[in-house]
Specification:
Layout (H helix, E strand, L loop, with lengths): L2 E5 L4 E5 L2 E4 L10 H9 L21 E2 L8 E5 L3 H6 L9 E5 L4 E2 L2 E5 L9 E11 L15 E12 H6 L4 H5 L5 E3 L2 E4 H4 L6 E6 L2 E7 L7 H9 L9 E3 L5 E4 L4 E6 L3 E8 L1
Parallel strand pairs: 5-15, 7-11, 8-18
Antiparallel strand pairs: 1-2, 1-4, 1-12, 2-3, 5-6, 9-10, 9-15, 9-16, 10-11, 10-12, 13-14, 13-17, 17-18
Length: 273
């Protein structure tokens, strides 16, 4: 499985289930993860067999977020009908999009830092599949989305639910606290994941599955989300579309949250205040 990742000290890597090598060791022209995204979208990442370096086991590496610099961070609300019914909201008839600032992003392990309790005392965590854009594009047809997507990464989204409940116009604020978007340690290329429809997404808190659903039950599929948003604005390498959660769970200091996406991977984070 081809993965793009970065070490905790910022070194870009490419690897598979067995381990990683420096990205530049397979192609000296690729010095950052962002450099590799268009190559991944084209399906042209060099083989690990071409590396001039020895494979290093993941167990001997410490990982940061795979992005050295974040692009636009899109989120999608209520993309599973069951989640909308849990919140007693009508399922939207088109993508319920919002954006998060890059300062909300955190690497694997987090932690998710809750705001002071007098600011918000009811935060939820949500597992999601995120799509990573690999090529600059606009007005992309659904049938051509595979040509612009570099890969996928699991994420944990978080929401200050009590802020949102006060007024739906407070959505951006409720989603934008530092550490409220935790990225998995690696981007898995599309050719290694295969069809998404049958894959499951699970929100797990303290080892218990709080919510689970399959991507086929999304109102708007990942490919459709890319096409839709490319008609709103130009998408660029490093932009991320987090495709919605099967369900949220309230979290408190001391909890551990895990997002699990079949064939893509998992990411966990501790919760602190």
């Amino acid at each position: 499985m081809t993965r793009l990742a970065r070490t905790s000290d910022g070194r870009p890597l490419v690897g598979d289930g067995a381990g990683f090598v420096p990205l530049s060791s397979v192609d000296p022209s690729l010095t950052t993860i962002r450099d590799a995204l268009p190559v991944a979208a084209a399906g042209d990442l060099p083989s690990l067999d071409d590396s001039s370096a020895e494979l290093i086991s993941s167990e001997h590496l410490s990982f940061a977020s795979p992005f050295e610099r974040y692009g636009k961070l899109w989120g999608i609300g209520l993309n599973y009908a069951e989640h909308a019914s849990d919140l007693d909201e009508d399922r939207p008839t088109e993508p319920a999009s919002f954006m998060k600032p890059s300062t909300a992003a955190a690497g694997p392990g987090g932690p998710i830092r809750l705001p002071p309790s007098d600011v918000s005392d009811r935060v939820t965590a949500e597992a999601e599949l995120a799509v990573v854009i690999g090529r600059t594009c606009s007005d992309v047809a659904v049938s051509e989305v595979d040509d612009v997507v570099a890969g996928f990464v699991p994420v944990i989204d978080a929401t200050a639910e009590d802020i949102l409940d006060r007024n739906p116009r407070f959505l951006t604020r409720s989603k934008s606290f530092d550490s409220f978007l935790v990225f998995g340690r690696s981007i898995v290329t599309t050719d290694e994941v295969g069809p998404l429809d049958g894959l499951s997404v699970r929100t797990v808190v303290n080892g218990d599955v709080a919510a689970e659903n399959r991507i086929r039950n999304m109102m708007t599929s990942p490919d459709e989300l890319v096409a839709f948003h490319s008609s709103v604005m130009t998408l660029e390498p490093g932009d991320v579309i987090s495709t919605g959660t099967p369900g949220a769970e309230h979290i408190a200091p001391g909890d551990t949250v895990r997002a699990e996406v079949a064939e893509v991977g998992a990411v966990a984070a501790n919760v602190v205040r």
